[in-house]
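Quick one, tokens below:
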């Protein structure tokens, strides 16, 4: 025994006992022990999840074989295969082309001060263990250190267990609605997932991706544009030759509603088109009408429904007063058989205000025929009259749907 061979001073004895206590059966020199004389590997790009190729390498001449400890953003251990031999780090990891990690699970139950030989794999392309290298692992009090030689593989690098924190790594959420792959269900869904989404064109419908325009501002946004129209004879508004154009493929009399049908989603408020009417109800049941000649309104269903094309009551509210007259009035019913239509034909949904004292109570009538004497009413005073604005350069209207 050591103390029999040599007479020790009290201080030397104390140090020896302390060392024995800390490092079990390790020989305890008076010089530096690896557990207090290691180099730190702390770079954030050494984390296994750092997946940008940075041409980092531990094969340079400046790398010296030494005891190393992983700290900070690099992680607290060397990376390892998950389980035993399953899963491997793919290029790039820890900023390197050939990421290195333990071939087996990281040992957990080493005695402090003992060291352990282990194998590091360097993966290359799809090969998990293209090159291997022997290293040593030592358990210190509550951390591990590793004796790492210069990487045998050019551009090989020892990866740590650190997890790279990205500001928002939820790719799906970021890209939602922005590509066919991440097509959304509706504008509402996009707005719910991305509060900062702006009005514009987005991808919708994963099965058959199409582009739609979303209003992301009005009343919380989430409105899908389904219809953009103009008038066929705005200057003679009350003549039979005046109608909306184009018209959606909603179920109206083909005999009288002689206006071209669109089934292509409008990409803006001035892109004259209409989304296939069968899809409207899949986007929701609330609708909003915006026109630059009549007030903007939004309606929830009562017993009536626009998307189901069903007569009945509506609960409408004003969104914005546009016309100069009759501010804050809204319709309260949807009817389909407007007065004067031949053979009771339906030529488009008709939004009326049932309490109006006039005989005809039309507020918005989406009429699409130049064959009857009727015309597409846009009357804020809900009396089927010419109370709309007449001073706008390009009179038009839009319908939006929301869940
Ligand atoms: C998506 O497209 C398919 C195929 O055109 C259609 O059947 C379906 O109704 C659409 N769904 C929605 C929610 O737009």
């Amino acid at each position: 025994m050591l103390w029999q061979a040599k007479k020790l001073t009290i201080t030397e004895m104390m140090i020896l006992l302390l060392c024995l206590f800390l490092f079990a059966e390790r020989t305890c020199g008076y010089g530096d022990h690896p557990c207090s004389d290691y180099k730190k590997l702390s770079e954030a790009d050494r984390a296994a999840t750092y997946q940008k190729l940075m041409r980092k390498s531990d094969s340079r001449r400046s790398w010296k074989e030494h005891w190393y400890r992983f700290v900070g953003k690099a992680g607290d251990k060397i990376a390892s295969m998950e389980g035993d031999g399953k899963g491997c780090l793919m290029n790039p990891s820890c900023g390197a082309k050939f990421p290195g990690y333990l071939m087996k699970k990281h040992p957990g139950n080493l005695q402090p001060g003992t060291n352990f030989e282990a194998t590091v794999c360097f993966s290359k392309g799809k090969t998990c263990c293209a090159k291997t290298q022997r290293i040593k692992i030592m358990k210190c009090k509550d951390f591990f250190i590793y004796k790492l030689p210069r990487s045998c593989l050019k551009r090989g690098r020892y990866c740590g267990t650190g997890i790279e924190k990205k500001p928002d790594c939820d790719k799906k959420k970021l890209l939602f609605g922005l590509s066919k792959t991440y097509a959304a269900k509706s504008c509402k869904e996009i707005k719910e997932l991305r509060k900062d989404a702006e009005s514009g064109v987005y991808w919708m419908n994963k099965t058959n991706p199409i582009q739609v325009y979303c209003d992301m501002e009005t009343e919380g946004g989430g409105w899908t544009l389904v219809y953009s129209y103009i008038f066929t004879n705005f200057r003679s508004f009350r003549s039979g030759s005046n109608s909306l154009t184009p018209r959606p493929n909603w179920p109206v009399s083909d005999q009288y509603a002689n206006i071209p049908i669109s089934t292509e989603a409008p990409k803006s408020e001035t892109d004259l088109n209409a989304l296939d009417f069968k899809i409207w109800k899949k986007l929701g049941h609330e609708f909003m009408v915006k026109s630059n000649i009549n007030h903007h309104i939004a309606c929830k269903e009562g017993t009536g429904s626009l998307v189901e094309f069903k007569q009945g009551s509506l609960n409408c509210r004003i969104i914005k007063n546009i016309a100069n007259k009759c501010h804050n009035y809204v319709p309260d019913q949807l009817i389909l058989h407007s007065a004067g239509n031949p053979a009771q034909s339906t030529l488009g949904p008709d939004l009326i205000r049932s309490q109006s004292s006039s005989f005809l109570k039309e507020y918005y009538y989406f009429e699409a025929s130049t064959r009857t004497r009727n015309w597409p009413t846009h009357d804020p005073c809900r009396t089927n009259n010419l109370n709309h604005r007449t001073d706008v350069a390009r009179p038009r209207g839009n319908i939006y749907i929301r869940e």
